[in-house]
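ok trying this again, last paste got cut off
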Amino acid sequence: MGNQPMKIDVDKVLRERLSKRYKYIPRFAVRWLERTICQDKLNSILQKMAGKNSVDAATVALDEMDITVEATGLDQLHEGRFMFVSNHPLGGLDGLALISLLGNRYDRKIKFLVNDLLMAVEPLRGVFLPVNKYGSQSRANAAQIEEALASDNQFITFPAGLCSRMQPDGTIADLTWQKAAVVHATTYQRDIVPVFFDSRNSSFFYRFAKWRKRLGIKFNIELIFLPREMIKKCGSTLRVVIGKPLPWSSLDASHPKQEAAHLRDIVYSMAALPSKP
């Protein structure tokens, strides 16, 4: 990885992507977008991350935001090749926290299954394994994932894919968990480690997502607010509960969807566990 820091430049991206249509975009709209995604703060963090391996880059980002990760249950982890499955409440900061926490515990031997769009975050590419959520999965990506699953690296995933949303009863929780984690765990004989991330985004984020859906807009435009949600967490403590490993052999490989739903239930049942050992 080079030492040149990645830099976010909204104006440049719009100019390159929209070409001749760029001149019709009001300047105030561009500035609003820059402020909304906290462009200056993100670039400051990215500058600190430059030139470091992915795990150290994640740790530096957390330090730059003055965020403490308080983990319970790490002492339950024995030797082995694990599949860590976590709820996804925040949409970015929870990923950084798990990369730092587990990457430092396992001597940086971790891999994280993510939306392929996140491969644009250069400082973290070393631990990311891309999944194409909006098209067909390339053979190269599939082979890369299979190689990682067969390796000694620990494997981290958010089975919901998208970050948590407001449920019909008003609670905040993940959408349906996908079966891939169960299929991967049983195929590659990896014990499952449930992880509960005790945090949430702002009420505004969830209300916006709810109204976007009601209006029939399919594109998740609320994602534009995720950087701001992350920056709002500066100076806070994030609580993570690590559960007892579940043997891969205890999973019913013939019903992966039901097993994925069961794992989701296990993770959310951990919300009641004490924050201190």
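PB: full thing came through this time. The chain has a mean pLDDT of 91.
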